[in-house]
Design brief:
By secondary structure, this protein is α+β, with helices and mostly antiparallel strands. The chain is 34% helix and 12% strand. The chain starts with a strand and ends in a 6-residue tail after the last helix.
């Protein structure tokens, strides 16, 4: 379902999540709509169900960029981009870091199945595993 949001209401995405879920489990199960902000003649689409590859492929499914960095290798991959661009090294600051539990502890069998199915394209392409 596509939900068109009103441009004059702040925190549309936040409101959507809180109206449709009270827990991580409910978020995974219920927050499946695509939100559309219409501003300045453009449709800005937001979704929690798109694979990351959806943003980097053309209409035929071909990778349309030269490099995809990974968050888990952020500094290392950022360094590669700087070298490619001929720019000096810059150390990215670490801001708002928190120590959290292993991400797998947040999932039960159902949410693991949903996420494994929903993001199969990314999991396969990037060689991730999604196991407990």
């Amino acid at each position: 379902m596509i939900v068109e949001t009103q441009p004059d209401k702040p925190n549309k995405l936040w409101n959507y999540v809180h109206q449709n879920s009270n827990s991580f489990k409910e978020f995974v199960e219920n927050c499946t709509d695509e939100l559309v902000d219409v501003r300045d003649g453009f449709n800005y689409r937001k979704s929690f169900t798109r694979n990351q590859l959806d943003y980097f492929t053309d209409s035929e499914g071909n990778i349309a960029v030269d490099f995809i960095g990974r968050f888990e290798n952020l500094q290392e991959d950022f360094d590669k981009v700087l070298v490619q661009l001929g720019l000096s090294r810059y150390v990215l600051p670490i801001v708002n870091a928190t120590k959290k539990k292993d991400y797998r502890t947040y999932y039960d069998d159902n949410t693991r199945k949903i996420v494994g199915t929903r993001f199969k394209k990314d999991i396969d392409y990037f060689g991730y595993t999604f196991e407990s």
